[in-house]
Amino acid sequence: MPAAEWRVARLATRRRTAITRAPVGTVSGRALGLFGLVFGVQTLPMALAQSPALIPGAGAGLMAVLYGAMVAMAIASITKVAVRGAALVFAVLYAAALVAWPFLVSDPALLEDEAPWLYYICTVATTAAVVAVSAPIATGYTLVVPAIYGLVRLLPAGGAVDPLLAVLDAMYAAILGIVVLIIVTMLRQAAESVDSAQEAALERYDVAARQHATEHERVKVDALVHDSVLTTLLTAAAARTAEEQALAARMAADAVKRLDEAGASGPRALDRVGLTVLVRRLRAALTTLSAPFTVRVVNAGGVELPVEAVDALYTAAVQAMVNSVQHADDPALSTRRELRIRGVRAGGCVIEVADNGVGFDRNEVPVERLGLRVSIEERMANAGGSAAIVSSPGEGTTVTIAWPAAPDEADA
Question: What is the value of pTM for the model shown?
């Protein structure tokens, strides 16, 4: 087995588990759901004990709203559906409950100078904000909500404590929230760096594969020149008899024919490879991606394509898969991805890269982004193929690349 094929086979035997943005969002959401339930259970006895101090029905309503929101967050984190939405709802409800607390307390004396039970789930609320919104907004929430709690503690409904104690309580809650914010933000940044490095690695792999093919062709041409042209010239120079001259003439004709064949089309137009080779290359590329793809192959046997077409199909498909891994995920959704490869008669191929992710509006893609226009559409057009990209916000994306292009697509 050649060294390059051995390395690809070895790479295919193990899938690299990368920390990308989607897994970070999933882990953050599930941690929020789990610890939210834990903190909720711990504060339930205190919430029940403080309910008589509130106006009738307020204690039960407050517990139903906040504990119900925490249960909804846990369910969303397990099912990976609407995680950010559930976290945002809880963060808003908690802030509203904290502001309303002084107005809900009817008898501060019954609180026995204890801190409102809302304090003990403050970290859950700040973590929910980190999961739900961007870092700048989450930072503001993490600072403002503990400050509101500190003000509540100064009031009779909050215990009318010494200002120093109120400040310490507020700072403690803020510090816990900031620690969570820093950890999640660093993980997200690291995940984005992994995504960028992954795309760069695939681009370098593609360049290396092209350079290897170019070097392989150069060796073939060198061998052709040495074995045919030089041998013919040496034979002709040494020819003395009529038989030797006739042999040199036949060798010269054969060498000219072989040079004409190599120069007329070259390896890209003349050489053909089976579709199964392209399937193996794409499967090997999938091992370098952090997100799994469901691979479906239909009618690959007996289909042969020009090397140029295989190269274009491979590069465009890998670019589409990388785009899906980097841009399709939503932490609130479970993204499914498929790679479908279909042979068309004996000399054609259609590849579909599809996902049910966030999708996008093609008109809003900046002009300087070249992944779709250059790496997929223009690459396939230059090779005689076609590419179609269907996507809309919230509806996923399907990239269809084909070779050869249909007559109407070629005209377009």
Answer: 0.53
